[in-house]
Amino acid sequence: MRRGNARVNEKIAVYPGTFDPFHNGHLEIIRRAFGTFDRIIVALGVNPEKEKDTIFTLEERLDMVRQSVKSDPRIDCEPFEGLLVRYAEKKGAKAIVRGLRAVSDFEYEFQLALMNRKLSRHIETFFLMTAHRYLYVSSRIIKATVLAGGSPEGLVPDYVLKTLKKKFPLIDGCDKSSIKPSMSRSSNRAYKR
Fold this sequence. Notes:
Number of domains: 1
CATH superfamily: HUPs
Oligomer: single chain
Helix content: 25-40%
């Protein structure tokens, strides 16, 4: 039985971001969030201010996320506009999931969480520390690496790597023996219980 977009007693969380591009650190946060939540909505915010700084269109980013998680029916992916807490309420979510890499992330995320709490007392922010192997991984670092001709192999899902190589054909090959990817070819299954 559903109430709005949520089944009764289903624990839903929204995982918002720009995801430009989506990477294995994001997959890790989703996988671990399933220890607490039944369904995750990966929500790509439509923000005209940030759009000018993205290397992928909203449609391309949605496609990368969807292709990276397509085998898991517990994950939805869609764009949203406006206030995140209003979107979360509309979706029947009770939490916003955020990944933290360092203390510098916390200060900004803490401010956002407090503002979201002021706007909606019913939505909690759920912080997850990133796995140590992804402490240095961010979409910004991946973009900088790719724009300089380096390969993010082992840091992004296979579909995202293919998409990056299409957009940036000068990405150099990578010595696969020097990388021990934590998300293998079956990266779509990496976050399942």
